[in-house]
Design brief:
The protein is mostly beta strands. Helix content is 0%, strand content 56%. The protein has a four-stranded antiparallel β-sheet with strand order 4-5-6-7, with no helix packed on it. It has a four-stranded antiparallel β-sheet with strand order 8-9-10-11, with no helix packed on it. Strand 10 (111-117) and strand 11 (120-126) form a beta hairpin.
Length: 288
Amino acid sequence: MDFLGLKLATCSCDKSIRLFDLNWSTGNQTFVAELKGHEGPVWQLAWAHPRYGTILASCSYDRRVIIWKETDGKWEMHHNYDGHDSSVNSVCWAPPEWGLMLACGSSDSSITVLSFNNDRWVASKIPNAHTLGCNAVSWAPVTFTGDKPGEGQLVKRFVSGGCDNLVKIWKEEHDHWIEEVKLEGHSDWVRDVAWAPTAGLARMKIASSSQDRRVIIWNNREGDGVTWTPEPLHVFDDVVWHVSWNFIGDILAVSGGDNQVSLWKKQESGSWECITTDSKSQNEHRTL
């Protein structure tokens, strides 16, 4: 779903992307268009911020990233990036303050950051970012180098998770991306990562999910982006595929191979509690 909640995009193993207009007053969805350009299963979609127009990014098993743009009601392929040697598994747009900037994680072990500068797309690649492949990328909110929010220089960061069981944080320095922190806590492939919105607070947190059936919350209370403390959320019954924060970063959605979606919120006691689940068999809240 886009930032305004008015458009929905879906992707599929049939190589297609389907777009729908949403009407919240009636609850109806209207099919708008089908985007065809990929030659393999499409794994993930990401909407750009609306200040740059109606733009959608897609990544696929066909090793490509396609950026689509709607102009006067017509969808067209705006850019086709084919610089990876294996499946591209994840795409994520940077905060709009950085302009049009897209991180792409691939099974070829590398991460590419695509930036739109001077009417052209420029690729900056991080080789060997994750051994055996990168499964997920997520951008940090806009942060500063100072001790207090809004002080110091702006910092560009994103987090990635890979088949090396690691969570890594990357920082841009002098137009190059460097590995700032390596977080070890999972015992199997990291399937997803999600950097929480900060809501203006200096402290930061990241959620990671893994093939090891665990979700870990990484806390950076100092706000320096370097010192992170792991906080186990829960051990689930199956692989955990995806994690996603709400807009203010206080509720985490978790989905996995057990075909369940659960919502988790930290209580005043400091424990994480499951506040809802889509499984009818689970009627009681669970606390860790």
